[in-house]
Design goal:
Radius of gyration: 18 Å
CATH superfamily: Ribonuclease Z/Hydroxyacylglutathione hydrolase-like
Structural class: alpha/beta
Distance between the termini: 17 Å
Strand content: 15-25%
Helix content: 10-25%
Number of strands: 16
Number of helices: 7
CATH class: Alpha Beta
CATH architecture: 4-Layer Sandwich
Number of domains: 1
Largest sheet: 7 strands, mixed
């Protein structure tokens, strides 16, 4: 799906894999420098056991390479991978099984950026996180990883900021061009419906930190007309809210139809939605 500069950052390309999970963003001048940025890496369903498939509710296969091909890219063309956090549904696609059934990097030419706390916890999971911080997702790519502490200016137009909350090392991502900003709050803002700060996910490891981070970043985003893009929202790829965050004033729908459509009884469908 291509979104032109009418409603967002010029020539942003969003690529959604599996549950529309992964996004590739190519900003104009980066294309001329032949740099490609991937935000998170989805699952790699080919690595999952039958038990994992059952427990995770996998209903379709990941198609990372096929989706990249739609943009004329291969995994080898990815220059940087920006990891919001390392939970299995975001990091599983970092590695794959080769023809010898050995785990290798999916994006062998990429630098992989992740917060230093998140990287430490990925390699040293506790009893709560050991089911999502998996060795097979980090061991083959550890030589590609570069960590940061509070924030990282990947380039002047792309910034990663540590927030904590959903995980201890969770980060959000800001994309800036001219006077426009897009914000990816990752799993701090699972869907457009989670925009009240106190509405946090049951899967958040540190919910009070999530609330604090959401209060800060939602206020800034609403007041400055940032456009939100999502990892888990089944209806929207991009949304802009009014200055109070109460109404949707513009949006880009997912390419795929939602598995569970809006219903009159359960959902407050946006006025613009059609």
């Amino acid at each position: 799906m291509t979104k032109d500069d009418k409603n967002g950052i010029k020539s942003v390309v969003c690529l959604f894999i599996l549950y529309n999970i992964s996004e590739i963003f190519r900003v104009d001048y980066l294309v001329t420098k032949n740099k490609n940025y991937l935000i998170d890496a989805s699952f790699n369903t080919a690595k999952l056991s039958d038990k994992q498939r059952r427990n995770l509710g996998i209903l379709s296969e990941s198609r990372i390479e096929e989706s990249l091909e739609l943009l004329g890219l291969t995994p080898e063309d990815i220059s940087y991978v920006l990891m919001t956090h390392m939970h299995h549904d975001h990091s599983g696609g970092l590695t794959k099984l080769n023809e010898n059934h050995q785990l290798v990097s999916t994006f062998p030419n990429a630098k992989i950026f992740v917060n230093d706390i998140e990287w430490y916890e990925m390699m040293n999971p506790n009893n709560r996180t050991k089911g999502t911080y998996l060795r097979e997702n980090w061991e083959p790519i550890q030589h590609q990883v570069e960590t940061f502490t509070e924030y990282l200016n990947v380039i002047p137009e792309i910034q990663m900021v540590h927030t904590g909350g959903h995980s201890n090392g969770h980060s959000i991502i800001l994309l800036k061009q001219g006077n426009e900003t897009m914000i990816h709050m990752a799993d701090l803002l699972l869907t457009h419906a989670h925009r009240k700060p106190v509405w946090v996910a049951a899967v958040d490891d540190y919910p009070m930190r999530s609330i604090i981070a959401k209060e800060k970043w939602l206020k800034e985003a609403f007041e400055n007309h940032y456009k939100f893009f999502f990892y888990h929202d089944q209806f929207f790829a991009v949304v802009e809210f009014d200055h109070e965050g109460k109404e949707i004033v513009d949006y880009v729908k997912r390419i795929r139809e939602p598995r569970l459509p809006f219903t009159d009884k359960q959902d407050r469908k946006p006025v613009l939605y059609h």
